[in-house]
Specification:
The chain is an alpha+beta fold and 133 residues long. It has one domain (2-132): Roll (Pnp Oxidase, Chain A). 22% of the residues lie in helices and 49% in strands. The chain contains 4 helices and 8 strands, in the order H-E-E-E-E-H-E-E-H-H-E-E. Strands 1, 2, 3, 4, 5, 6, 7 and 8 form an 8-stranded antiparallel β-sheet that branches. Strand 1 and strand 2 (23-31) form a beta hairpin. The termini are close together.
Amino acid sequence: MKEVIEMLAAPCFGSLATVDGGKPRVRPFAFMFVEDGRYYFCTSSTKEVYRQLTECPFIEFTRTGEDMRWLRISGEITFDDSIGPREKCFAHYPMLKDIYQSPDNPIFKVFYLEHGNASIDSMTADPRKTFEF
């Protein structure tokens, strides 16, 4: 799992896939941080992605490194309304202050992936590495 965490140097950007009406939806998305085996993200309750996550809480997040290896993590998310992770998102990504003003803004939503699957793959390196967390 060390390789997974290294590829998710906080914050980093990739693509988040959700389900909308039984169909996949993918958009650029930021990963915030990993703590205690939880992979944290955030969004706004005013966005379509939030509605999609509340209707079907399964995601896949992928990012490609500069070395052309790519990472996928997937599983079922959980929303976390506690202040600690919200403050940590603000600390890792200061631009959030411009959007939400403070971590206790009620439209600011934090969610995490705690149990799921991860894979690291490459077109040039050894075969895919897979992990469960």
